[in-house]
């Protein structure tokens, strides 16, 4: 069993193009996967332990992703991935899950924009400017490389200014810093929220222009408006059936159904659309397996648990 660290994964320098192709592959094998809803154990103080299992019969791999949130820890979110070989049920590797989580989340966001944004969009609004937002910007630098985009950022402490400085050399992006949620959302073609926790609603429906696409990465903050949108797409119904308005949506289906051409996506440039992607372990496990294969050239630590080879008695 290999132990694959965060630093080793980073050293692979996986391209944005590769990650984007992996996420499309992962979505299109969804029907060949066993994907039970994650188990979430919540403690006081917004602490949680999430267990995310899945099996991918197409690739003969399975695994569990463990995600924890502990306010005050830096970063507050942390994750590990346990990767199994389905042919012999052996644990192939334990991987740090932080890079994989941010990378696949960014790839999902970029794929959602490619799939559901209106034609000729030119303005993207982002609230929540942490690791996930940065990963999304990196991915968009690849997927939108032929477009000039105005990026609107919600001001919070000095994060927006730091964000602009990080990407100011990328000439395809121009930046605008907004003081309020309303200023951020009004006239934006795509609105991305990477806010990790909120107990308040973040918008009013009238702020969203015709044709707007909303991507709430952590699936929170928009329960007061989502049922008013023309279409709502879900990465997995069973993971999202708890949403407060799930039975009120005008039209909804899974992202997979659109990618596999079994359902319609955007039909005109006036539709307001939401793409809810809570994050699926099938993506984490496929990314982990791809990284496992790439790590064959690295000197990863090997761990032997020395499990029993025959029936034993206690």
From TrEMBL:
Gene3D superfamilies noted in UniProt: NAD(P)-binding Rossmann-like Domain, ornithine cyclodeaminase, domain 1
Name recorded for this polypeptide: Ornithine cyclodeaminase
Gene Ontology cellular component list: cytoplasm
Record-linked PANTHER family: KETIMINE REDUCTASE MU-CRYSTALLIN
Highest taxon in the source lineage: Bacteria
């Amino acid at each position: 069993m290999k132990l694959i660290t965060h630093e080793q994964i980073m050293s692979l320098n996986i391209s944005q193009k590769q990650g984007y192709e992996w996420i499309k592959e992962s979505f299109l094998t969804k029907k060949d996967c066993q994907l039970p809803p994650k188990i979430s154990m919540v403690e006081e103080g917004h602490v949680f332990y999430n267990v995310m299992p899945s099996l991918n019969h197409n690739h003969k791999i399975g695994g569990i992703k463990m995600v924890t949130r502990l306010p005050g820890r830096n970063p507050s979110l942390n994750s590990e991935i346990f990767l199994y070989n389905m042919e012999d049920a052996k644990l192939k590797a334990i991987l740090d899950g932080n890079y994989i989580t941010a990378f696949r989340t960014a790839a999902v966001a970029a794929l959602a924009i490619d799939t559901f944004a209106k034609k000729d969009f030119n303005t993207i609004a982002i609230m929540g400017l942490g690791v996930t937002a940065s990963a999304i910007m990196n991915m968009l630098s690849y997927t939108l490389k032929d477009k000039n985009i105005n990026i609107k950022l919600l001001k919070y402490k000095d994060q927006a200014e730091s964000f602009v400085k990080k990407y100011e050399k990328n000439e395809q992006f121009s930046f605008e810093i907004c003081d309020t949620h309303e200023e951020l959302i009004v006239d934006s073609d795509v609105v991305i929220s990477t806010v990790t926790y909120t107990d308040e609603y973040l918008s009013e429906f009238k702020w969203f222009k015709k044709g707007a696409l909303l991507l709430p990465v952590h699936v929170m903050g928009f329960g007061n408006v989502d049922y008013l949108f023309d279409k709502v797409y879900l990465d997995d119904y069973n993971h999202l059936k708890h949403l407060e308005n799930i039975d009120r949506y005008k039209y909804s289906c899974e992202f997979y159904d659109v990618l596999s051409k079994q359902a319609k996506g955007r039909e005109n440039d006036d539709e307001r659309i939401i793409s809810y992607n809570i994050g699926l372990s099938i993506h984490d496990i496929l990314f982990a397996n791809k990284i496992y294969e790439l790590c064959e050239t690295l000197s990863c630590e090997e761990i032997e648990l020395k499990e029993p080879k025959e029936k034993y008695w206690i």
